[in-house]
Amino acid sequence: MTKPIPSLPKVALVGVSGYGRIHYDLIQKAVDLGLIELAAVVIINPEEEAAIIAHLKEQDIRVYRAFDHFLAIERGSLDLCFLPTAIHSHAPMTVAAMHAGMNVLVEKPLAGSIDQADWIIDAQKKTGKFVAVGFQDMYMEETRRLKARILEGAIGKLKSIRFMGLWPRPVSYYKRNYWTGKLVVDGVQTLDSPLNNAFAHFINLSLFLAGTEPNSTATTKLIDAELLRAHAIESFDTGIIRAQSPEGVQFWFGASHACDTLIEPILEIEGTEGRAMWYYDDRCEILKENVIAEKWPVPDAFVARWEMFKAVIYKLANSTVLLSTPISAREHAALIEAAYQSTEIKSVVPSHVDRVLVENGKKGDYIPAIRGLTEALKQAFDQGSTLSETVFKVDQAV
Predict the structure, then answer these.
(1) Are 360 and 379 in contact (CB under 8 A)?
(2) Stretch (H or E) spanning 382
(3) Cis peptide bond upstream of 109, omega within 30
(4) What does the domain layout of the chain look like in residue ranges?
């Protein structure tokens, strides 16, 4: 008797614009490899995505204009839902999808508040569905290797982890949608910022590396935060957060979008007997007495995203596959919320902001770059200090 061929997992995608296009392309790759079946897509802006809609309909893939309508029709029929959506929608959409019988891959950060994160965690327990969070570095073998080496004592007892990154963003970046740079959207706490969006990966990665077990993430207590803005936004575009774990590990996180210099993310993990350096999209090194003892490549973000997609798909059939979980990602959300609650966001004095035109960009588009920030942030990173404790003085902000 011939065994029946098992059907492929049926998946849905909510959104194909912006970052959703990356999810769409990766789903198409998985479809081409025979890993999944794309059954339904939600597209709320059909006029802008007419070509994709036509392509989907040619393949008999159901297209919906509203998330609620999608849930009502597809309830109980799909295995997995991809949610590359806005921060304020993460919790309500994830919870609704789980209650409709779907597992979920939700984009980072998990949510804009601890309450929203806990809502997701509670719904996961009630429904028995899994939620994977889109912190793509967490799905790489190279990340697990570094964590294992830290736990094995390759650099001695862990003392501190510092992260720094500068990614210049023009005015158009904050005008690309209605929620970027906002603190609250549609009554939901969002807290969009470099440390809760573009650079959220590296705070989450740092907390994971400091976890005392192979799959755990460190909890933290905020020490202080320095939050500044040069862009005309509600939130901050430049910030430093300092925190500490119960085990005494010191954390320093500093990043900005209001800068004229690109510095790709760097993590420095210091121990009592050495240190590790993690360079975004490049390499990881373990050093003893400033000599490289171990070194391995770190894949770029495109590879990491594909590893994440494969893990989430394989999880449907194999419960042992490791994911970035809501319980782990909650620690990032808790630290960000604590930072906002601890201090006021200060606007940088306009006379200390340079207008840097964007080459090959839209006419008139520019970056409001804080003068002297690059060197000040480098100094703060080296010292583990705030900007106001360096050459960048607090009188540059009001």
Answers:
(1) no
(2) helix 373-383
(3) yes
(4) 10-136, 141-300+326-396
Which pLDDT score is estimated for 1? 38
pLDDT at 394: 47
Q: Which amino acid is at 302?
A: F
CATH of 141-300+326-396, one of 3.30.360.10, 3.55.40.10, 1.20.1290.10, 3.30.450.40: 3.30.360.10
Are residues 10 and 36 in contact, defined by beta-carbon separation less than 8 angstroms? yes
SS3 content of the chain, % helix, strand, coil (to 5): 35, 25, 40
Q: Which residue has the tokens 């210091």?
A: 270
Dihedral of CA 146/151/157/163: which sign? positive
Q: Write down the number of H helices and E strands in the chain.
A: 10, 19
* Contact yes or no for 118/330 (Cβ under 8 A): yes
pLDDT of 5:
44
Q: Comparing C-alpha atoms, which of 109, 95, 72, 118 is closest to residue 203?
A: 109
* pLDDT at residue 390 in the model: 83
Q: Sign of torsion, CA 64 47 184 265?
A: positive
Residue 213's nearest CA partner among 355, 327, 103, 335 is 327
174 vs 279: CA distance, rounded Å: 27
Q: Is 104 helix (H, G, I), strand (E, B) or coil?
A: strand
306 is written with which tokens?
A: 């594909």
Extended strands (E) in the chain = 10-14, 37-42, 62-64, 80-83, 103-106, 131-133, 158-166, 184-185, 188-189, 221-229, 238-244, 250-256, 263-271, 274-279, 283-288, 291-297, 346-347, 353-357, 366-370
pLDDT at 6: 61
Give the Cα separation of 316 and 9 in Å (integer): 8
Say which CATH architecture domain 10-136 belongs to.
3-Layer(aba) Sandwich (3.40)
Low-confidence residues in the chain, pLDDT < 70? 1-6, 393-398
For residues 301 and 11, what is the distance between their CA atoms, to the nearest angstrom?
Answer: 23
C-alpha neighbours within 13 Å on the C-beta side of residue 148? 6
